[in-house]
Amino acid sequence: MGKVAHNNLRGGGGGVGAGLSGLCAAHGRQIAKHIQRTTDDLLQVEHGSLYPALNRLERKGWIEARWELAGKDLIREYKYYRLTADGRKQLRTEESKWKKLTSAVARIMWPVEES
Amino acid sequence: MLWRRRGSREQDLDRELQVHLQLEAEELQERGVAPEEAQYAARRALGNVTATKEEVRRMWGWNTWEIFHAEIRYALRNIRRSPGFATMVVLTLMLGIGASTVVFTLVDTVLLKPLTYAESGQLAVAWEHVRFLGRDDAVGPNPRHVDVWQSRSTAVSAFTVFRHSQMGLATGGDGTRLTGVVHCLPNLFDVLRVRPLLGRTFVARDGTKGGDNVAVLTHAAWQHLFQSDAGVIGRTVRIDDNPVQIVGVLPADFHFPSANTLRPFSSRQPRAGLPEPSVFLPAVFNYAEMEWNGNYGNWTTVGRLKPGIRIEEAESQLNTILQQLSEEVMQGSRNQAMGALRASMQPMQEGVVGASGATLWFLMAAVLGLMLIACLNLANAQLGRALARGRDAALRTALGAAKWRLLWNGLAENVVLAAAGGIGGVLVAGTALELVRRQSAIDLPRLSEVRLNGAVLLFAVALTMMVSLLSGLVPALRILRADPHVFLQGGGGRTSFGSSSHTRLRTWIIGLQVFGCTVLLLVTGLFTKSLLHLLHQDKGFESHDAAIAEVKLPVKLFSAPEARVEFIDRTLLHVRALPGVEAAGLVSATPLEGESWIEPLRRADRPEAEGTMVNARWVSPGYFEATRQRLIAGRFFEERDRNLDSAVISEGAAKALWGEANPVGNAVDVLGRRHSVIGVVADSRMTSLKTAPVKTAYVHYKYRPPMTTSFVVRGKGGAEGFVTGLRQAIWSSAPNVTIGRVKTLDSQLSDSVARERLQMQVLVSFGAAALLLAMLGIYGTLSYSVAMRRQEIGIRMALGASKGRVYGQTLGQAAVPVGVGLVMGLAASLVAGGAIRSYLYGVDGMDGWVMVVVVGLFLIAGGVAAFVPARRAASVNPIDALRAE
Prior knowledge:
The structure holds two protein chains of two kinds.
Chain A: H1 2-12, H2 14-21, E1 26-27, H3 28-38, H4 47-60, E2 63-70, E3 76-83, H5 85-109
Antiparallel strand pairs in A: 1-3, 2-3
Helix pairs in contact in A: 1-4, 2-3, 2-5
Chain B: H1 2-30, H2 35-46, H3 49-60, H4 63-81, H5 83-112, E1 123-132, E2 135-139, H6 143-152, E3 156-170, E4 177-184, H7 188-192, E5 198-199, E6 214-217, H8 219-226, E7 236-239, E8 242-249, E9 277-282, E10 300-305, H9 311-330, E11 340-347, H10 348-353, H11 356-388, H12 390-398, H13 403-438, H14 454-481, H15 484-489, H16 498-536, E12 546-552, H17 561-576, E13 581-587, E14 598-603, E15 612-619, H18 623-627, E16 631-634, E17 646-650, H19 651-658, E18 667-670, E19 673-681, E20 696-700, E21 708-715, H20 723-733, E22 738-744, H21 745-752, H22 754-788, H23 790-798, H24 803-836, H25 848-874, H26 878-883
Parallel strand pairs in B: 4-9, 6-8, 15-20, 17-19
Antiparallel strand pairs in B: 1-2, 1-10, 1-11, 3-4, 3-7, 3-10, 5-8, 6-9, 7-8, 12-21, 12-22, 13-21, 14-15, 14-18, 16-19, 17-20, 18-19
Helix pairs in contact in B: 1-2, 4-13, 5-11, 5-13, 5-14, 6-9, 11-14, 11-16, 11-22, 13-14, 16-22, 16-24, 16-25, 17-20, 22-25, 24-25
């Protein structure tokens, strides 16, 4: 299963973007955890492959990153990622594509019985 | 800047991953995992950090450059580890690129590039073929015939006529300098379609008497004489002591054929060291006063064909007109046939290139041969190197290196070496071309146009690099295909890989090299022998300890023959008074510059007979003593001949007129005057070393004291010693004459064979380089094979093989390819020898001596190259060799 997630991330970082959409701003580990948690551990991101994906999204201008102090006592800086306006738009188009794809798959797998 | 950005990005990524690891570890610790274990677990969860980093970096787009950088560094490290190989490759490339660039540039500029005139394809040189010494020589046409062609021809839009000469030019500031001058019809620049940079070119009025004291300068002359002063128009210079006004300057890209090209009379030898044409003067032609049947071979004619007219059509039209002319003009004349038999035309480019085309194609062939040998050497060296690297490659493959990375490794090394060799080659080519350009003795047409040519250079670089890369890649590919397992087990491919197919391939490469080298050396040998023959044949005169001085007399001061005689007598007196001078004389034509002034010589008792054509020379007493020509009968000129009508004739002329009888005491008619023959002098090659001795008649200088005279002086203890004194003696006798050249007769001799010498020198250097490369090839292959078979040799010796046998076996390995190469080379050189036979003097295309020398040279060189590895093989200690396993 982890393998699937990995390939998916390589493809376009869609998963990561979707992961981010649920959060307003997050650092890498939070994103990884979030994906893992919201999918009931179904998609296990190999943490290493997360960072190239984030980098790719950043280069495309869909997310932006900033080092910010956070955590207990604000003693540690984290690199926080946020969706940009472009990123949101991209997410919406990807979302609709996914919906189409999944519904198509669903229709093939479980066709509605014809009366 | 870029590096800094990349550095901070790198840090950023590092930091981010570090934070990730810390968080993960802290979380695990909170769950109760031991701190150390937590660290490891976090790392495991993250996966391969380096791979992650690399993937991110690849997205940054820096990766390609980085790999390149790393690869180059790796290559440099490898190269440093084997400096011998690197030096060999770089030197080979340098020589290959350098030599081929120089030769290709010369070929391109001289032979292939069109002349620098607009529509230069329409320009054609016209020649007349004249009944001349019984030969069908193409000579410059009679300008009066050209004038008729001009008025009647419909195929040629315009003809122009010109002649090169050298005159003394004084700008007023400093002394008189000998300058290249072109006398031309005023329409020369219209025919060539050249527009002036400053002022104007000639107009019709310039070609009339009184209007002709104007001059047009070339760009180079303008730069040198007037420092590119734009106010030069209207200024006056003195040419041969006549005031001449400068009316125009030609553009920098205008190049006019040098004095040795398009010679109107090809039997005149090209002269070394002539100044480039730099001043143009209008020629005044009064056609009505010109002879109809004469004046051949004095002027060169160039015509511009009308658009769409082929050169053959124009030529046949000229012939038709010549035919008409012959009928119209010759009818009335007393039974005299027209001298001009027919006319011919050739493209101007072809005419300019002339005989040097052959020289250049030789050079081209030689350089290609050398390149072939150099490339083979590279291939051979690369093969050996690839084998040596086989184990390294196998190890890296076994460790999981990507195969393309291995390939790229080999490639990078080649790129580095090729770049080094390429840069070196460019430097070599640049220097060599500069040298060639300065070496006026080489005497190639269009030499002033020669520049390092970017396209040619690129071609040479690309060619050599391609060879280097291919020869590096092919063996690398073979190694990739090989199973790393076999390699590693075989302990570096010692047995299965090294000795069989690859060594065989390398030995055949050696065979090919030997083949190419043999042909090159044999051709070199033939040319060398030919040059030696030219220099050491019986010349009929002695060049040692003699010097010549060419003096031009200004027309105005010396128009009276008496003035010239007086000058000559006074100068001879001065010269003879110089310390060490044994003999001094005067001749009307500088030695070794070809035939000139050809006249019929008849017996006085048979005035109606045809007679024989001779070169007429006006000489003074002392001339024959200075040249040491041999007297066969009678006597040389003496002081008393001033009051007699005497002539000395050459042996050949005497035989032609009198057979075996002694002509001394008889009389001859030459130049419309009767002379009594006072002596017969042995035939000499005074006109040219390259042709058979010509028949010559010598008469006393009082009949026609020459405007351009050559003093010939013989003295004790080296001619160089009194060259300076000679100059002073002439000037002390008349300060206003122009001294053209003062040089030893020996250097005049060697200059007259400058082209042959250049050919030989180039071939010798190429041949030596080829021999060296072949030796390197033999040495490299054999030492590699010995190193690979060390164990085998050890076993053989342990089993009782003698040193002699080991020697024999190692040498024998080289003997077969060398032998086959030699035999094939000898066979091929028979063909080559036949092709070059007409360029050889006194040597046949197949010369036994040369063959013996070349084969001997090869056996010695090959033996030396093979002996060192063979000795290494024989000195293998069996115990050591076996223990090394």
